[in-house]
Amino acid sequence: ILKRLSVALAHRVALGARWGSRHHGISAMATRDIILLRHAHAEPAAVGQSDADRPLSTLGITEAEAAGAWLKRHGVEPDCMLSSPAARARQTLERVVAVAGYTGASEDERIYEATPGDLIRVLDDHPDADCIVVVGHNPGLESLVSLLADGASDNGRGLPPAALAWRRTAHDSP
Q1: Which of 65, 172, 74 is nearest to 129 (CA)?
Q2: How would you class 130 by CB atoms within 10 Å of its CB: exposed for 0-12, middle for 13-18, buried for 19 or more?
Q3: What is the distance between the alpha carbons of residues 137 and 161, in angstroms, rounded to a whole number?
Q4: What ranges in 31-85 are assigned the alpha helix state H?
Q5: Are 79 and 128 in contact (CB under 8 A)?
Q6: pLDDT, tens digit, for every residue of 137-147?
Q7: Pairing of strands 131-136, 31-38
Q8: What pTM, to 2 d.p., does this model score?
Q9: 50-78 in b/e burial notation, b at 16+ Cβ within 10 A?
Q10: Ramachandran quadrant class, 162 (left: phi over 0; alpha: psi -120 to 50; beta: rest)
């Protein structure tokens, strides 16, 4: 478990270093931090269980708590935290909130099975949030990461469970 967790954390750090961080260089204008977090590992579906009802596995709980600790250690202070209503995404955000001491998490049904366009609309619906955390699913999250990083949504590199991508952008506050 620790080796897999180390790999997941290393992937998070690599994505953060490549894709953006708090020290991205944008300083003279208003900025917005967009943090996209894929849900942690989930249990396989039981017979008759819907995909949306799959809970986190023991490994997933550990991964979600590690993600929360990583965000806290890096000084993330979200104004808005949203998750898909799927159990594994909701539980990932609950563990992040518990470890990092955040408040105010909520669900947005549009995040489940979202396309990059759906996710951008979710982000656009929260213009006052200078730091927003979205917990969701592939392929939508990895496609959005690729779109924001490279300008194309078909260059997905794979966003493993509990991986996060952090992008600081120029932001026009309302």
Answers
A1: 172
A2: middle
A3: 9
A4: 58-73
A5: yes
A6: 999 999 999 88
A7: parallel
A8: 0.83
A9: eeeebebbebbbbbbbbbbebbeeeebeb
A10: left
How far is Cα 78 from Cα 130, in angstroms, rounded to an integer? Answer: 8
Round to the nearest angstrom and report the end-to-end CA distance of the chain: 44
Which residue type sits at 143?
S
Dihedral sign computed on CA atoms, order 38, 79, 68, 108: negative
Supply the angle between the helices 2-19 and 58-73 in degrees, to the nearest 10. Answer: 40
Give the tens place of pLDDT for each residue, 58-106: 999 999 999 999 999 999 999 999 999 999 999 999 999 999 999 989 9
Hunting for tokens 């104004």 — which residue is that?
A: 79
- CA–CA separation, 50 and 23 (whole Å): 41
